[in-house]
Amino acid sequence: MFYHHFQVVLQEVPGEVSLCFSISGCPLRCKGCHSPFLWKEGSGTKLTSGAYEKYLDQYAGLASCVLFMGGEWHPETLVEHLKLAQQHGYRTCLYTGAHRVSPDILEHLTYIKTGKWDKNLGGLDSESTNQVFREVRTNKLLNHLFISK
């Protein structure tokens, strides 16, 4: 599994400081995608367990969540990384354009965003979006946390 870039983000998972890994090789190719450079498999840097654990250790006590922008197309590796994040005390999140992911992945997530990007419907900050952001354990819909009042 390769990641194109790593960022510390504040808005993608409300109430969390997240370590965000943008995974390359996305097979969905949503029309209007803001990151088409992520479509190419193998672009970026290989996310080895050692490099990943180094990020987890570096941000321990500063960040609270690990967020993967994609990666569900590498289910075994993604699950390994999710488990490692949980072992380090992080909550976990996956952003996917798919409508669902395998139960093996879901089992290791705290949050999930599903649904393809549709520019006519907008993203999570739009009341008309087709995308859904949920807390996995309770299945609670959390889209309202993205809407400005």
Draw up the topology in text.
Elements (H helix, E strand, L loop, with lengths): L1 E8 L8 E6 L21 E2 L2 H10 L6 E5 L5 H13 L3 E5 L7 H4 L4 E4 L17 E4 L4 E2 L8
Parallel strand pairs: 2-4, 4-5, 5-6
Antiparallel strand pairs: 1-2, 1-3, 6-7, 7-8
Q: How is this structure best summarized?
A:
The protein is an alpha/beta fold. It has three helices and eight strands. It has one domain (2-146): Aldolase class I (TIM Barrel).
Which key phrases capture this entry?
149 residues; alpha/beta; TIM Barrel; eight-stranded mixed sheet; 3 helices; 8 strands; 24% strand; globular
Structure report:
The model has no long low-confidence stretch (mean pLDDT 93). 29% of the residues are buried. This protein is of the alpha/beta class. 18% of the residues lie in helices and 24% in strands. Strands 3-1-2-4-5-6-7-8 form an eight-stranded mixed β-sheet. It has three helices and eight strands; from the N terminus they run E-E-E-H-E-H-E-H-E-E-E.
The main β sheet shows up as:
8 strands, mixed
CATH architecture: Alpha-Beta Barrel
What is the level 1 CATH name? Alpha Beta
State the CATH superfamily name. Answer: Aldolase class I
The tally of structural domains comes to: 1
Number of strands: 8
How big is the Rg? 14 Å
Q: How much is the average pLDDT? A: 93
Percentage beta strand = 15-25%
Stretches where pLDDT is under 50 for at least 5 consecutive residues are: none
Structural class category: alpha/beta
Q: Give the overall shape.
A: globular
Compute the number of helices: 3
Taken in chain order, the helices and strands follow as EEEHEHEHEEE
Within the CATH hierarchy, at the fold level, what is the topology?
TIM Barrel
Biggest sheet strand order reads: 3-1-2-4-5-6-7-8
| Fraction of residues in helix | 10-25%
How would you describe the oligomerization state of the chains in this entry?
Answer: single chain
Alpha-carbon distance between the two ends? 39 Å
